[in-house]
Amino acid sequence: MSNQSSYFGSLPQVTKYIILANVVVWLVDTILSSRGIQLYAIGGLFQFGTPYFRLWQPLTYMFLHSGFWHLFCNMFAVLMFAPVLEQRWGSRRFLIYYLVCGIGAGLVQQAVWFLTGTPGVTVGASGAVFGILFAFGWLYPDVEMFLMFIPIPIKARIFVFLYAAFELWQGIAPGAGDNVAHFAHLGGMLFGWLLILYWNHKGYTGAGRAQMSSDSRLKTWWQNIKRRFENHKRDQRSSFSGYHYQDPVADNSAETDNATTKATTGRTPQEEKEMNEILDKIKLHGYGSLTEYERSKLFRK
């Protein structure tokens, strides 16, 4: 029991709360149903324009399920695939993706009802879950998956394609009436795809990737600045390469021996100070700013 609880506790925050919210809502719905109160009547998704439709239903319908196995299959898929996406995108971006896919699936189902003229009620997180499956196949296309009834590994992108094709066939096949919102599933994939394309356009291709790109540009910009400064400094020195002058040397010691300094540089400390001031003036204002006296001090005979 402790291992199970620690595993669940280690799940990313949004993934964990999605599973908890769906389980809690299912338990409450089960208890209320035994007393004749049906949550789907106020929280399920009904067609626009009918007396049963409410503004909150495009959000609440994805937390209601028609039974235990409906809940189990959806939450099992969330448990398997959502943590990878949340760790890559971050909790906030993953939550946005989940909700957009779920609401988008509901909008597609509304369109199907409008076109077919067969209104109903839809519940379940399947639209958001299919968005998660699509994102996993899009971001990790070559990951091999072992599926029930398929004895060989299958790549994620192939799995997503086959699943989408199956949902499309089930949605349009004559007499397929299995009471499953197949087009809502495809709608979750569609809105997930559109959101990923939008994020890619904005540079949000993965957790931290936009920041990494920004950091890379900043680093390149700083390196260019340093390179220009170094080139300017080198060019400035090379313009005086035909002349002999002493580079400025900072000497903060008050105990410098005059004789030692003159033996080393050929100048007294006072002369060395004047030379440093002349070189500083060249760096700030250019060689043309020197006086005749300063030029005579600069060059050695």
Q: Summary?
A:
Helix content is 66%, strand content 3%. With 301 residues, it is an all-alpha fold.
Task: Outline the structure in words.
It is a single chain. With 301 residues, the protein is mainly α. It folds into two domains: 201 residues, Up-down Bundle (Rhomboid-like fold); 61 residues, no CATH class. It contains 13 helices and four strands. The strands form two sheets. The protein has a two-stranded antiparallel ribbon.
Which labels suit this protein?
two-stranded antiparallel sheet; two-stranded antiparallel ribbon; 13 helices; Rhomboid-like fold; 301 residues; single chain; mainly alpha; 2 domains
Topology, pairings included?
Elements: H1 2-9, H2 13-33, H3 40-43, E1 45-46, H4 57-60, H5 68-89, H6 91-116, E2 121-122, H7 126-139, E3 144-145, E4 154-155, H8 156-172, H9 182-202, H10 209-238, H11 258-265, H12 269-285, H13 292-298
Antiparallel strand pairs: 1-2, 3-4
